[in-house]
Sequence to fold (215 residues):
Amino acid sequence: MDLSRRIPALPDGPVARHAVELVRSCESEPVANHSIRSYLFATLLAEHEGLKTGTDFDADLLFYACVLHDLGTSPSAPGKQRFEVEGADMAAEFLTGHGYGMRETDPVWEAIALHTSPGIAERRGVLAYLTRRGVGADFGIGTDFLTDPQGEAIHLRYPRLNMVTVLVDDIVRHAARAPQAAARYTLAGELTRERGELGTPTTLEHAANASRWGA
Fold:
């Protein structure tokens, strides 16, 4: 076996399986795959930086933060607030429904709510840091810790399927549901402005197309 192609396994407990089932039932396949890749990238980053599960962070909470981070872009979200906040609320509700308390749900909520907030998430603890970096790595940002075989293996198992454009579409669609969901200078607000005023593709799509993985 080529160990350079080894990628982390997903947690196999009942709550973890339910989390994946929830994401796949609410989100499109490209966005669901993005959420799973974000977790795999975050796990490999933690390994690269010598961060230890159980000491520096909780591996299960990292899984939930990454895999559930885009629930707010789905049609199941209320559509009244920023997608990051609604996704955090939905993740916390999911975890509470499976017996987790505030000690677990609060850091997951924070990591998801801040995952589009550069310079803030990185200073709110290891969980928020790894979540944001894992998500960013799937957009080709800060991927020096990943080998080409690792990237190829992850994308072979969880293909991109034009993820960036699909995700932008979902964010813009969610933002159109209420003014509070597309506040100016938020990610949703800027994507909505670019789509409406400047047309498509957006700056995010241009950057992704030029990145290591493509869109």
User: Anything to note?
Assistant: Residues 29-48 form the longest helix (20 residues). The chain has one domain: 3-159. DSSP finds ten helices and no strands in the chain.
